[in-house]
């Protein structure tokens, strides 16, 4: 017997999560626009005047993929983690677990909504960048692919964090103290080829380097590491998170606390 997919259940979760985003649509759009504008003003004036190009790309345009990735990481994690943590906090998790929705369908609903929201914010940043710098996209299909893959991967990470967290403070622990520093150290605003050999070798242990490098390649055809390696690392990270999520639902880890 072929298992059925509960489209209505997934759609209900997806709509509910997306509605929360739509209620704060103005703030959600205005904030990244202002932040991106400030980055271009500050980095363009302070650094761009001293370093006009990186790899043949104007510095202002060079940092666009990094800005998008930084926003994608933080938005995906925060949206997904809050989305699954809130039912635990309010006690409605029991209703969700008893609903005729499988664990897989629940993940698709929550992660799909979080990924959608983060992708929309990333596209807002991209549109904003066109007003400041000459952005070009040499490999649009790859750009969309990396965008979808990264948003899904980090939404899954946020989902895991939301289940692991026991307080609202813990929800922000990983994004603020782990992901953001790794992003700034992962070549978001510079090429790791500019680093001394020892530091460059050290930077290659940072998984964020591969994500940003592959995404930047889709824009300008330049990368710090092979695009194949970047894609492989992203898929590997996604695979690990899928295994973790499956383990959580099989064991019931912190789902009923």
Structural write-up:
The chain is mainly α and 257 residues long. The chain has one domain. It is 74% helix and 2% strand. It is built from 12 helices and 2 strands. The protein has a two-stranded antiparallel ribbon. A hairpin with a 2-residue loop joins strand 1 and strand 2. The two termini are 34 Å apart. The relative contact order is 0.14. The mean pLDDT is 87.
Compact summary:
The protein has helices at 7-23, 25-46, 59-62, 64-90, 93-98, 103-129, 140-164, 168-171, 173-184, 197-203, 207-220, 227-251; strands at residues 53-54, 57-58. By secondary structure, it is mainly α. It has one domain (7-251).
Strand content: under 5%
Helix content: over 70%
The count of DSSP E runs of length 2 or more, i.e. the number of strands, is 2
Compute the average pLDDT: 87
**Strand order within the widest sheet?**
1-2
Keywords:
257 residues, mainly alpha, 12 helices, 2% strand, globular
Write the layout of secondary structure elements.
Blueprint: H1 7-23, H2 25-46, E1 53-54, E2 57-58, H3 59-62, H4 64-90, H5 93-98, H6 103-129, H7 140-164, H8 168-171, H9 173-184, H10 197-203, H11 207-220, H12 227-251
Antiparallel strand pairs: 1-2
Helix pairs in contact: 1-6, 2-6, 4-6, 4-7, 4-9, 4-11, 6-7, 7-11, 7-12, 11-12
